[in-house]
Records
---
Amino acid sequence: MSSYTPAPPSNFGGLSEEHSQYENSRAVIFPVPLERTTTYEHGTRNGPAAILAASGNMELYDEELRIETYRKIGIHTLPPIDTMNGTLENVLAELREAQRELLDDGKFPVALGGEHSLTPPLVTATARKFKNLSVLQIDAHADLRDEYQGNPASHASAMRRVVEVCPAVQVGIRSLSVEEAKAIPHLRTKIYWAKDIVRAPLNNWIAKVVKDLSPNVYLTIDLDGFDPSLVPATGTPEPGGLDWHQVISLVRAVARHKKIVGMDVVELLPQPGDHASDFLAAKLIYKCLGYIFCKR
């Protein structure tokens, strides 16, 4: 039947089959609507769907790189993983295994969250594949509690679990507990506090962040790392955050000097009438893929 024009696909970017088949795609979008430990506003389970919907409305030409990124790399979108059935421990184990399979297939995984507790199993799988791995976290919160409300797999403990696997560099941090403040000197992490960088020239701190990272980098971006004037749609917005150009300048520099081997974007909490936050998340992912694969 061909009497009408079908709607665009619901995959990332609304891409045609030619540019979104798994076999021919270097990047794979992995929706993870995980929401099991959130403690304030709820709704991060809706984040992946909102990002995918917004991505279908992006212009796919990158004016900076002067290319259509998707044509160079191919971007496949997986179905969302079921995160509601079974224990959280089992869900995290499934995430770890799925990440391992993607990496073994030579894919670049991009997980869409969901809450930040999805990051440690993804990092664990990535560290088994890539030696000399470190994690670059862009976030408002340190997420370094050993446990929160009795749960060591809480979103508030995500980076504490990560630094048990590999070192981290944390950028934009401006919220933490006294427990975390006391633990930081003893943990494998370097923190670039928001108060020290948001008004500083980019060349004063980005080169230092790059130098602190190992040759292989896993990138995790909590959207509350951005100032809430740009991204209000998060569960725990914190004032005093980073802006768009600071974040993409950092990712561009890391992609130029290191090998980014996987990433996630987490903690979008879609709000009625606020399409800007959803769109920023989608555009950020596409921009990162351009920097990672299409460096000039």
---
Amino acid sequence: MAFGQDLVGAVTSQLLVGLSRAMILFVVSAGLSFVLGVLRVPNIAHGSLYMIGAFAAFTITALFGQALPGFWLALILAPLAVAVVGLILERALLSHLYQREHLMLILFTFGIMLILNDLVKIGWGAEYRSIVPPDNLTGSLTIGDLPLPRYNLFLLIVGPIVAVAMWLFVNRTRIGKISRAAAVDREMVGVLGINVSWVFAAAFVIGCFLAGLGGALIAPTTSITLGMDRTVIMDTFLIVTIGGLGNIWGALIGSLIFGLTQSLGLLLWPQFAVVFPYAAVVLVLLARPKGLLRSVW
């Protein structure tokens, strides 16, 4: 009986970790998917913006304290700081290249990624940093006989909120509807007298904001360091690919597949746990080469 309870507890705990990681991946993937859907820009620098969000969160909590209100300010100000960086990049550089082919855009955003990584190294150095969440998100919450980490439960709340907020923005707001129209026919939107350039700028800034939010959310769960952008950009591109390019709900489903298969791998075969999510991606693409949900491309 005790063994069975321990097994259930271990499985539940591991699944919770997988779901919470999936929610962070979704927040970052949603931003990348939105930019892909509206601008048709495969932004390789998206992972660097995520890393800047994590470092910015560290700086804000260092200024205002690890507990209240520093952590909550970091969740607001760090994504806003990344959004400002995104606006500068879009207005100064990216806005002149939207008509270029995708290979050119990939190479260009890859160059931006290298520049941003060097700027992060200059600004914050190469040392490992960390953040401690506030007291009300530390420790575990016991449900039944199962202790569940509070911060992981918090992430399970944030992910659906972001998903619903993005759906409402795209389908219920004027700028969201214009963004959808511009994704289909940007010339026609321009003919109607709408400044498409600023619509694209807004879409890119929203994507950057979500990247920064993902970085701020991941900060209390891992070391903040140079190079943390590389894994996340590869994972998020795979997620938006299997979910359907530009499809927000597809990004959510892809993130759940990624997070849960990784947790399953840790339970079944820990030495090769990293392989499980990528094997799931291969299986999904073999069954549905265009992704699980409709692509906007």
